[in-house]
Design brief:
Helix content: 25-40%
Keywords: Endonuclease, Hydrolase, Nuclease, Signal
Protein name: Endonuclease
Oligomer: single chain
Number of strands: 18
Shape: globular
Strand content: 15-25%
Strand order of the largest sheet: 2-4-5-7-6
GO molecular function: endonuclease activity
Organism: Halobacillus naozhouensis
Number of helices: 11
Distance between the termini: 79 Å
């Protein structure tokens, strides 16, 4: 009898002791699990690991792995876990094919084993996109759950109209308020006292703004003369297409359409222009394209607003801008960056309350145009 009691107590202790690796873990918790443990880990997609100490966070070249972190803006590789993507997951989750997945919050089930000799998860059995409640409902989340629900399964004009309805109603800033907003949205991640200038890529003091040479001012990426909206509240102050730029560079761009070619512009490296077009540096070509696509969807002519359209030629006039085929190429060649996604989140949570759909879902461009 005494042996039976001891066996029953021992069995009860074994049942009540947590199994190592059970439950959904954070990235840091999963990194502390032993190799060979079965794990379920939740984290933000923050890039593509291509070496033990390097993770691509833009211009993705591979669908073979993901890096996850507890912070959607993480840049330190030591705080990331690498997830090996077997063939069945690459088409849906690989960032080379789906750069819009950057920043998404997912759950991965698999085995805790090194990848590139770094803490990793292999033999993945399941990946699911989950809602991050701490970043949902207007608190700066990436692609908040349900935000694009009414656009699901649509294409063409129906998708364009659905996206317009989603992003149309938002807070409008005054033109003077734009200064303060841009100091926040375009802050240099390596120097909180500076902003990054769009075309030149220079880092300049937040308060060196104005209209003098070597200061920065407010560039309308959709040139305000393309619709004559000036600086009025609405398209003239929509910070989804307003960016800090050097005064001289802003003046040189003027109201030119966007296209490839021309002469080099010395004050903005790798930038070219001619009499009717402007070509920005490669690192922001996609940013420019997605801002233009946003404007063409946000302003559709209702409620007395302009109907902005993207044309497939340069030398445009009226409420149109070009060149569509070039902008689509730029969108593909320069995928969404961490900086761009972070900017989208800030505009959504702190200023306008709406998002740029083409940052969250790059695939929408091809579905509409």
């Amino acid at each position: 009898m005494r042996k039976m009691v001891l066996l029953m107590v021992s069995f009860m202790f074994m049942v009540s002791t947590p199994v190592q690796g059970a439950g959904v873990l954070s990235v840091q918790e999963a990194m502390n699990q032993p190799n060979g443990a079965d794990v379920s880990v939740e984290g933000y997609i923050v890039g593509v690991p291509t070496a033990i100490d390097y993770v691509q966070q833009s211009n993705f070249t591979s669908n073979y792995a993901l890096a996850l972190a507890d912070d959607p803006n993480e840049t330190q590789v030591n705080d990331m876990i690498f997830v090996k993507l077997d063939a069945e997951y690459r088409s849906e989750y690989g960032l080379a094919n789906n750069p819009g997945n950057m920043g998404k919050f997912i759950q991965v089930d698999g085995t805790r084993d090194p990848y590139f000799s770094h803490q990793g998860v292999e033999d993945v059995s399941s990946i699911t996109t989950v809602s991050d409640d701490s970043n949902d409902g207007g608190d700066g989340g990436t692609d908040p759950a349900g935000y694009y629900e009414n656009a699901s399964g649509l294409s063409g004009s129906a998708l364009k109209q659905a996206l317009h309805n989603i992003i149309d109603d938002h807070t409008e800033l005054s033109y003077s308020e734009v200064w303060r907003a841009l100091r926040h949205t375009d802050e240099d991640p390596n120097n909180s006292n500076h902003v990054i200038l769009l075309y030149s890529g220079d880092s300049l003091s937040k308060y060196d703004n104005g209209g003098n040479v070597d200061e920065w001012n407010r560039e309308h990426v959709w040139a305000k003369s393309h619709g004559d909206f000036g600086t009025s509240m609405g398209p003239g102050t929509d910070i989804h297409h307003l960016r800090p730029t050097d005064v001289t560079v802003n003046s040189a761009r003027g109201n030119l359409d966007f296209d490839n070619g021309g002469s080099a512009f010395s004050e903005a490296p790798d930038t070219y222009h001619d009499s009717d077009s402007w070509e920005p540096r490669d690192e922001v070509k996609g940013d420019v394209a997605r801002m233009i696509f946003y404007m063409a969807v946000r302003y559709e002519g209702d409620s007395g607003e302009l109907d902005l359209e993207v044309a497939d030629y340069v030398g445009t006039s009226g409420p149109s801008i070009g060149k569509l085929t070039t902008l689509k190429q730029w969108h593909e060649s320069d995928p969404v960056s961490v900086f761009e996604q972070h900017r989208n989140d800030i505009i959504f949570s702190d200023y306008q309350g709406n998002r740029n759909p083409f940052i969250d879902h790059p695939e929408y461009v091809e579905r509409i145009w």
